[in-house]
Specification:
Elements (H helix, E strand, L loop, with lengths): L19 E5 L4 H12 L3 E6 L14 E4 L5 H11 L3 E4 L6 H6 L1 H21 L4 E7 L23 H20 L2 E7 L1 E3 L11 H10 L4 E4 L5 E2 L1 E3 H13 L5 E4 L5 E2 H12 L5 E4 L14 H6 L8 H13 L3
Parallel strand pairs: 1-2, 1-4, 2-3, 4-5, 5-6, 6-11, 7-10, 8-13
Antiparallel strand pairs: 9-12
Helix pairs in contact: 1-7, 2-4, 4-5, 6-8, 6-10, 8-10
Amino acid sequence: MNNQPTTDDPRPTTNDQRPTILVTGGAGFIGSHIVDALIKENYQVVIVDNLSAGQKENINKEAKFYKADITDKEKLAEIFAAEKPEAVFHLAAQVSVIVSTKNPVKDVKTNIIGTINLLECCRDYEVKKFIFSSTGGAIYGNKAPRPTPETYSPDPQSPYGIDKFTAEKYIDFYKKNYGLLPIILRYSNVFGPRQNPKGAAGVIAIFGSKMLKNEPIEVFGDGTQTRDYIYVSDVVAANLAALKSNASNIYNISTSKETSIKELVENIKKLTGSGSQVEYKGGRAGELQVSCLDNTRAKIELGWTPQTDLIKGIEKTIEYLKNIK
């Protein structure tokens, strides 16, 4: 086995004594923001990303980058052996509910098998701290009380939600049997700069981009469906709080506020001055009608509170979208 895996890192080898943090999906939307924050906090950061969704331009130049897939356990083991991380942030995933319903096998390989590969590496290389980016929006189901607490029994309605919940159960197994100290963060609907406006997920980025061009908007459903939208910088703050915490629990990372799709469309229209026409279509399999998460536990145990309201977050996102070619 090659014990020195290929990396795009151009920097000379140094005896850097800073703690090393490994971030899967570190070239992606949320992951790249977490990497930036960790580097500002003076951590040494290693990124593992296959660039299937992540972008090279998102990669912080101060981070060490491995182009690798989490489904490749042998390559992961080489990276763990070479870098000896003290903690892992696991964000690499197939994140679209729609894609998961069309290709559930791919979803299982990435979101379950990929997670198990990482857990095995953590066991083999004695990494205890494991921070997992899960989903709150797709796990709890339509019948959950709102805002939904972590104590509510999950009832996922899509392969994506099923696979994320299954990954959580594997994480719990490694906690109980191998001394892993995980924190599971169940996100509501995250939005902000670097979210792909041409992707299958991220309705604010998609709508904002189209409205800036006065292109028509497609809404799947009647627009009364609700979501709990949280700005990416607040998600980053929650991840840093998790890293510094001695807790090991599941936390909803959300605003605990519901917004309907109709209301969201009107807000984006006002902020962009758009004349886009809105076309309502039939709902899609696996998507929830309503979703809102209770963030009380994260406030109490992590000392975390969201700071960015919806309108301010949309404004920042639109400014970013204006600069995308």
